[in-house]
Write a structure and sequence with these properties.
The chain is an alpha/beta fold. It has helices spanning about 10-20, 25-35, 40-45, 55-60, 60-75, 95-105, 110-115, 125-130, 220-230, 280-290, 300-305, 310-320, 325-335, 340-345; strands spanning about 25, 85-90, 115-120, 140-145, 155-160, 165-170, 175-185, 190-195, 215, 235-245, 255-260, 260-265, 275, 280, 295-300, 345-350.
């Protein structure tokens, strides 16, 4: 493996594998994204048209505004407390939170109650968030981890779950084996089959796997996250929007994204974003395991439509006629039935004594009578 055709992290991982043996896909993803020196999220300004990918808040301000108003309604469902933690996981460049806080001015009592917390692992993105939110007259704090608390809390996260490291299993010779990252004889990173045992996370209801079938799970990552969500506030409500599938199935969804295109996930570790589709059923199971309940998931288009995204877009177009075409195109992109509108799903989590959350279809029956 020559220095000319690889990255510092690739060389470090190759040395680690040579010393300790193959590593799991989850360990590889974690190193690529979070390595303290070479990790993608530690040093890249990943989001934006000039970077590697673009997210819904960057496409249209209406997205963040709608979520801000959703939070205001949830605050009312919490009993309009005098103080509420508004926590965003993976806040990107601060665009969503900035738009949400602008919308919060329509509900002055809600805005006055806000204590905003941004959970961010990237110093580069934290700097962008501080700049974007510098003029917001609400208390703002930053942290690396989701911290417990005793106050009511609302948690929002857009394209956060897909960044959690995913484990992969491959069905070979009649049994499930951990899918690993190894090195070829020439020193290049490659996928390899690890040892059994059986993958305990494969749902019993799935069809029998074929030879070479791949199953993905974030069981450990989801369990860690949902335990923290259950402790973040009393009570707690949350909204997660991400791309994925509502029911579990087989398939390899690991991908690298660089310069708005797909790349080989093993080619240049640390220099591309790595993601995999979210199994919302698996996330919901972890939520319930933490003592919380779920609403949804529902497609992003349906969620935004229920909250009046088209009406808000029409008003914005009327107020800015010179930008009407661009505004309309951006909202159409969020709602596209063969694109973001259906590929992305919205799911809510809440304490058991709270009523179902706005614009989300109740799934779990445990909730307070309104």
């Amino acid at each position: 493996m020559s220095g000319a055709d690889t990255t510092p992290l690739a060389r470090e991982l190759a040395a680690r594998i040579a010393r300790d043996g193959p590593i799991s896909v989850a360990a590889y993803i974690d190193a690529c994204l979070q390595h303290p020196e070479h990790g993608y999220y530690r040093r890249q300004a990943a989001i934006g048209t000039a970077a590697d990918f673009i997210t819904a808040p960057e496409i249209s301000q209406v997205f963040g505004e709608i979520i801000g108003l959703w939070c205001a309604v949830v605050w009312q469902q919490l009993g309009s407390p005098a103080r509420v933690r508004l926590v965003e996981l993976g806040p990107g460049r601060g665009t969503l939170m900035g738009d949400a806080l602008r919308a919060s001015r329509l509900v002055p009592a809600f805005r006055a109650a806000l204590r905003v917390e941004l959970v961010e692992s990237s110093t580069t993105l934290e700097a962008a968030q501080r700049a974007a939110l510098a003029n917001e007259a609400v208390p703002l704090t930053w942290s690396r981890e989701l911290a417990p608390g005793g106050e009511p809390a609302i948690v929002v996260a857009n394209e956060f779950l897909d960044t959690l490291a995913v484990e992969q299993w491959v069905f070979r010779g009649g049994t499930w084996r951990t899918r690993c990252i190894d090195c070829t004889a020439g020193g290049a990173l490659s996928f390899a089959d690890g040892r059994p045992p059986l993958c305990a996370d494969v749902p019993a209801g799935l069809a029998a796997p074929a030879e070479g079938s791949i199953f993905e799970t974030r069981g450990a990552a989801f369990a860690t996250l949902t335990a923290k969500l259950a402790a973040v506030g009393m009570p707690v409500a949350g909204l997660f929007i991400d791309y994925g599938h509502a029911s579990p199935g087989y398939g390899d969804t690991l991908q690298a994204v660089s310069k708005h295109g797909y790349a080989d996930p093993l080619a240049r570790p640390g220099e591309a974003d790595l993601t995999a589709q979210v199994d919302f059923a698996g996330f919901a199971a972890a939520v319930r395991g933490a003592g919380l309940v779920c609403d949804g998931p529902v497609p992003q288009a349906e969620f935004l439509g229920r909250l009046g995204v088209l009406e808000r877009g029409s008003r914005l177009m009327a107020a800015n006629p010179g930008q009407a075409a661009a505004i309309e195109a951006a909202i159409a992109r969020l709602m596209a039935p063969v694109g973001m509108g259906t590929r992305f799903q919205a799911i809510g989590i809440r304490s058991p004594d709270l009523a179902p959350l706005p614009a989300l279809t109740p799934v779990d029956t445990a909730h307070r009578t309104p």
